Amino acid sequence: MSEPFEPKIVAFVCTYCTYAGADLAGTSRMKYASNVRIVRLPCTGRISPMFILKALQKGADGVLVSGCHPGDCHFAQGNYHARRRWTVFRALLAFTGIPEERIKFSWISAAEGAKFAELINGITEEIRSLGPFEQYQELQTVIETQSTY
Amino acid sequence: MGIQEQYRNEAAELLSSGAVKLVIGYGEGSTADRRRPVFIRTAEEAGRLVVDANCLANLSSYLVQEGLMSDGKSVAVFLKPDGIRSVNILAAEAQLNPDQVVILGFDIGAGDASPLPGRKASDFTPLIESLKTAGLSPELQHEADRLELMSAAERFDFWKEQFSKCIKCYACRQVCPMCYCRRCIVDVNQPQWVNTSSHTLGNFEWNIVRAYHLAGRCVACGGCDRSCPVNIPLRLINHRMAKEALDAFDHFAGESTDQKPVLATFRQDDPETFIL
Questions:
Q1: Which residues sit opposite B112 in a β-bridge?
Q2: Which range marks the domain in which residue B179 is found?
Q3: Which of A46, A139, B43, B76 would bridge B102 by S-S if both were Cys, CB 3.0 to 4.6 A apart?
Q4: pTM of this structure
Q5: SS3 state at A133
Q6: Residue B274 lies in a domain
Q7: Same-domain status, B78 and B16
Q8: CB contact under 8 A, B270 and A50
Q9: Does the beta-carbon distance from B268 to A143 stay under 8 Å?
Q10: Looking at B89, B109, B132, which one is the last position of a domain?
Q11: HEC letters along B77-137
Q12: Across the interface, do B240 and A136 touch by the CB < 8 Å criterion?
């Protein structure tokens, strides 16, 4: 166990705000953890809860979902709808025992490159201290190793 | 005259006058305490109807059968308050025209069935409002509280044990009046969101998605729970979602035929304490 654990984090972001914020972090030469894999979507309203489950299924240790601040949505209402969905989906995940600390939600505007970099660094450290999401990943291992499935 | 006699007469009257083309009700089941759905098309058959405390199923599921309502004719259906709420939701989600549904309402209390006055969905609004005031099931809340006191890892183990029993028969989906999608997300295979074989991971995903799709829509009729062949406490997870919709958005499913679906609407001041 000499190698430190490097968490896999999947970020589902909207193209108009958070992706632009991530872009700003990059063009401003800010450093942030390379553990994050960014998936760019048109709007937070396009982010289906299935995406979060799929990320976990494929071995993510943490998921970030991020979009425009309320009132700033390019499509006017997408993030308001998304916010309601996240509220119930987050409660559901917590109730089924998927730790809340692994699924993060944030608003990051196109001007908040620094916030993006800080958030990614913060989440990476938090997930690193939690360790890999073994409980969930074990279930996937069973499928891959048992021929009956 | 008992409730059963009263409703048999009323069903016969509705059919012979041509007010409805079909009565969906309960008949004798395979054992003395079971009831199975019956579909009555003539006044002579109305004698097969049974109304008593064993009539548990939420018959509103049958109203969304493809093509049943498309001729514009009316259908009468036996419903408990939960079933009436289902009809409200189906109407609010544009799955049926509430004017085509004649509700033969009854409620079960103290081991006996009693008739509910009113025949149209809107007649029951005061009743449903009183249900909202009465709140969600305290027994289920007690059980949910017990789970929520556990650590996330313990809760995961609890559900892992429960979901590992699932055989993916989809009885919970088939029985549910809210699961009317022509193509369910689990049947979508490009991309394959949910694993189809019944291993625990796929079962987790299926049960999470099912509960999520019922958030703010489930009326706690208990159909999924009763139909589950391996006794997964599905009612518990549905209850947690209903509680979230009620606490966060003051949404009680099926209040009226024009209630906006909870996840298809929003308020600018919705709670967002968890968003960074």
A1: B109
A2: 138-264
A3: B76
A4: 0.90
A5: coil
A6: no
A7: yes
A8: no
A9: no
A10: B132
A11: EEECHHHHHHHHHHHHCCCCCHHHEEEEEEEEECCEEEECCCCCHHHHHHHHHHHHHHCCC
A12: no
Q: Same structural domain for residues B24 and B91?
A: yes
- Partner B contacted by A106 (CB < 8 A): yes
**pLDDT given for residue A149 in this prediction:** 57
Q: What is this model's ipTM? A: 0.89
Q: Judge whether B275 lies within some domain.
A: no
Of B117, B132, B147, the domain-final residue: B132
Chain A nearest CA to B111, separation (Å): 33
Nearest CA among B203, B234, B232, B210 for reference residue B220: B234
> What's domain A9-145's architecture?
3-Layer(aba) Sandwich (3.40)
Measured in residues, chain B has a length of 276
Closest by Cβ to A139, choosing from B204, B207, B276: B204
Cβ separation B271–A140 shorter than 8 A:
no
Pairwise CA distance, residues B74 & B159, whole Å: 43
Contact across the interface for A84 and B270, Cβ inside 8 Å: yes
Among B208, B215, B245, select the one facing A96 at the smallest CB separation: B208
- Quote the CA–CA distance of B76 and B233 in Å, as a whole number: 31
Q: Total structural domains in chain B?
A: 2
pLDDT per residue, tens digit, chain B (276 aa), is 688 899 999 999 999 999 999 999 999 999 999 999 999 999 999 999 999 999 999 999 999 998 899 999 999 999 999 999 999 999 999 999 999 999 999 999 888 889 999 899 889 999 999 999 988 888 999 989 899 999 999 999 999 999 999 999 999 999 999 999 989 999 888 888 888 888 888 899 999 999 999 999 999 999 999 999 999 999 999 999 999 999 999 999 999 999 999 999 898 888 888 888
